[in-house]
Amino acid sequence: MLAIQAVRTGGPEVLEAVDLPVPSPGPGQILVRHQAVGLNFIDTYHRSGLYPMKMPVVLGLEAAGVVEAPGEGVTRFKAGDRVAYNGTLGAYAEAAVVPADRAVKVPDAVSLETAAAVLLKGMTAEFLVRRCHKVEPGQTVLIHAAAGGVGSILVQWAKALGATVIATVGSQAKAALARDHGADHVILYGEEDVAARVAEITGGQGVAVVYDGVGKDTFEASLKSLGRRGMLATFGNASGAAPAIAPLELGTKSLFLTRPRLFDYIATTAELDESAAALFAVLASGAVKIEIGQTFPLAEARAAHEALEGRRTTGATLLVP
User: Fold this and answer.
1) Terminal C-alpha separation, the chain
2) Cα diameter, the chain
3) Alpha helix locations (H) across 56-188?
4) What is the mean pLDDT of residues 16-37?
5) How many CA atoms lie within 13 A of 172 on its CB side?
6) Neighbour-count burial of 55, counting CB atoms closer than 10 A to its CB (0-12 exposed, 13-18 middle, 19+ buried)
7) Mean pLDDT throughout 116-122?
8) pLDDT tens, position by position, 48-81
9) How far, in Å, CA of 107 to CA of 279, rounded?
10) For the chain, what is the domain count?
11) Peptide bond into 56 cis (omega under 30)
12) How far apart are CA 92 and CA 39, in angstroms?
């Protein structure tokens, strides 16, 4: 089967297509034949060495497809079930073996392409707005990279929860997308002083929470944009890792700073199922719509990484086996 390996750490050029045998599921595992594979920024962290791992490695944490064979003792799924998963390395391939207790059934109302495009990003948005900081009606929130995969979901979900949404984007085209998703205010972070604009929009009060998947480039503005007892959830490093900070710097307004990871919020099968159910429900309600902005053949994963890191993507990106 076709698979894409990172043969060493580095840029997109380290990705190589290889022919690997189709794996067999062991006890408690399922073999999933992929229909679509999700592309995520964390894939670039694994490739670059920001998150170290043994090389060579088949990248990818998210895919959707059909169960081809359940392993011994698996009762959660049967052959032919439509499933999706995230958190198990090896998704950049035509098929993969995954633990049965880390996959979820995909309801008939959701396509496998949508499931592959949304599961990791959507469950990230779910824990951010429902559990990391529970967004309440009337709150004002700031969302960076609001036209991206997670950002576009966050904007829609926060609006559905009754928040006023301030979005930052990098271009006028992405500003239009953020507005289409429901953002009340849009800031071009390359052209405007984000913290100053937030202060203007909020009458100097600041926001209740900042969802920051950008990292280094937006960190300072994110802190300055918070109101009293506000929370900065820095959950990504698209521009590089956020800088170190002394705890005393949070004391000016009794701020909270967290570096959350999805996998700590779906650590158990029960948490995984609950998060997926909340995500699929908000999709079914129409409150959140998923835009698959672009697709690449699996063999062209290198080009997909180049587009993602060059900020030339909008919405979700899929690799298609």
Assistant:
1) 10
2) 61
3) 112-127, 149-160, 172-180
4) 97
5) 0
6) middle
7) 92
8) 998 899 999 999 999 999 999 999 999 999 999 9
9) 11
10) 2
11) yes
12) 9
Where do we find the tokens 């705890």? 247
210: containing domain: 137-259
Measured between alpha carbons, how far is 153 from 262 in angstroms, rounded to an integer?
A: 15
d(CA 84, CA 99): 11
Nearest to 213 by CA among 251, 246, 168, 267: 168
Q: Is the dihedral of CA 43, 119, 95, 306 positive or negative?
A: negative
The pLDDT assigned to 242 comes to: 84
At residue 240, what is the residue type? Answer: G
Is 53 a member of any domain? Answer: yes
In contact, 287 and 279? CB cutoff 8 Å:
no
Residue 321 DSSP label? -
For the chain, the residue count is 321
Residue 1 to residues 12, 23, 33, 42, 58: CA-CA distances in angstroms?
Answer: 21, 9, 11, 24, 12
Q: How many CB atoms lie within 10 A of CB 272?
A: 21
The pTM of this model reads: 0.86
Cα–Cα separations (whole angstroms), residue 231 to 34, 45, 159, 305: 38, 25, 18, 31
Residue 126 covered by a domain? no
Q: Residue 150 belongs to a domain with what CATH number? A: 3.40.50.720
Q: What is the mean pLDDT of the chain?
A: 95
DSSP code of residue 295: E
How far is residue 228's CA from residue 223's CA, in Å, rounded to a whole number?
A: 11
**206 in Cβ contact with 226 (< 8 Å):** yes
Over range 165-177, report the average pLDDT.
94
Q: Is the backbone of residue 167 left (phi > 0), alpha (psi -120 to 50) or beta?
A: beta
**Do residue 81 and residue 28 come from a single domain?**
yes
Strand partners, 297: 320
Same domain, 84 and 21: yes
